[in-house]
Automatic annotation (TrEMBL), chain A:
One of its GO terms (cellular component) is cytosol. This is Phenylacetate-CoA oxygenase subunit PaaC. It comes from Candidatus Phosphoribacter hodrii. One of its GO terms (biological process) is phenylacetate catabolic process. It comes from the Bacteria. The gene is paaC.
TrEMBL record, chain B:
Keywords: Oxidoreductase. The keyword Oxidoreductase applies. InterPro entries: PaaB (IPR009359), PaaB_sf (IPR038693). This is 1,2-phenylacetyl-CoA epoxidase subunit B. Its EC number is 1.14.13.149. Pfam families: PaaB (PF06243). One of its GO terms (molecular function) is phenylacetyl-CoA 1,2-epoxidase activity.
Length: 257, 95
């Protein structure tokens, strides 16, 4: 396979990473003015901006890998729901603050393991993006951990709600570590991507350490778990999210600041 | 969680090695560890610092505006305390 063909084969893998960051950044952006305190508005917006930065670099890279030459904006704003490759976890509607911290705890633990593993990627550009992003997501994980510990080890109500939040997020976790799909196979074969299942053990260890410190317990294995995001099969909330995110560039094509 | 239940912390940021920590503002936080993180997000967004201190606002003991006369005015006519009688070398930026 030529270098070009290899790039095209694993571009869908990179697109999955990009869409996770893009969609979660949008969900976090929705917290602005709704967080428990002004300070938390800023903190969540900071995390959201870090993720937008990652999404921009990754999407731009996808555009050159897949040979279509699409820009980051083309990919973010002009694709339809079935063309998005993010996991279900990041597209779920904004719940209460405990749920958001549970989601951020898992997602940042996953990203931390992911970007650490991509330090060995054969793709130089991906290596560089991962090196920068790794520092960012370590902070995201720390931020979520601080809150999970305070809510878990806080009042009786905050403890119960934080425990419920961990149960809420559990069915969406497995999908992050799912190895199936042609994109993952192509990326791993090319020495470019990290096998998702290999990220599970470090990510789970980070989460479990926080949960234990927070005097909470890991929820039982859920009977149902989400699937299909990497193939473009999404849950209902993504359509509404995209409608809002893509509205402007679609109604005013080529709009500029 | 209303603002009234979260204690206030004063924030001090050191812009770079060799400078002092300077008061930049305040944040609300549940405790000191969270205050450092909130301060990081609010006051070092543009790489303003390499180090942050926070201190509970309630722990600061301050002079009272009512005491301004006795505290500060007596220094007003003692010009010999001001370093105006020698030249500052050009390269000393942060004196």
């Amino acid at each position: 396979m030529s270098e070009k063909e290899t790039g095209a084969a694993y571009s869908a893998y990179v697109l999955g990473l990009a869409d996770d960051a893009l969609i979660y950044s949008h969900r976090l952006g929705e917290w602005l003015t709704w967080a428990p305190a002004l300070e938390e508005d800023m903190a969540l917006a900071n995390v959201s901006l870090d993720l937008i930065g990652q999404a921009r670099s990754l999407l731009t890279h996808v555009g050159s890998l897949d040979g279509t030459g699409r820009s980051e904006d083309d990919l973010a704003y002009l694709r339809d729901e079935r063309d998005f490759r993010n996991v279900h976890l990041v597209e779920q509607r904004r719940g209460d603050f405990g749920q958001e911290m549970a989601r951020m705890l898992w997602f940042s633990a996953y990203q931390k393991a992911l970007y650490a593993a991509l330090a060995d990627s054969a793709d130089e550009q991906l290596r560089a993006i991962a090196a920068k992003a790794h520092k960012e997501v370590r902070y995201h994980h720390d931020h979520a951990a601080q809150w999970v510990v305070r809510l878990g080890d806080g009042t009786q109500e905050s403890h119960e709600r934080m425990q419920a939040a961990l149960t809420w997020v559990a069915p969406f976790v497995d999908e992050l570590f799912d190895d199936s799909g042609a994109a993952v196979a192509a990326a791993v074969t090319a020495g470019v991507g990290a096998l998702p299942s290999s990220l599970r053990s470090p990510a789970q260890a980070s989460v479990e350490a926080v949960v234990a410190e927070a005097t909470l317990t890991m929820p039982a294995t859920p009977k149902w778990h989400s699937r299909g995001g990497r193939e473009g099969v999404h849950s209902e909330p993504l359509g509404f999210l995209l409608a809002e995110m893509q509205y402007l560039p679609r109604s005013v094509p080529g709009a500029r600041w | 969680m209303s603002e009234g239940t979260l204690p206030l912390f004063e924030v001090f940021v050191r812009a770079k090695r060799g400078l002092s920590h300077v008061h930049v503002g305040s944040v609300h936080a549940s405790d000191a560890a969270m205050a450092v993180r909130n301060a990081r997000d609010l006051y070092t967004r543009r790489q303003e610092g390499v180090s942050i201190w926070v201190v509970a606002a309630s722990d600061i003991v301050a002079s009272s505006p009512d005491e301004k006369d006795s505290f500060f005015d007596p220094a007003g006519d003692k010009i010999y305390r001001h370093p105006t009688f020698y030249e500052v070398p050009e390269d000393v930026e942060y004196l």
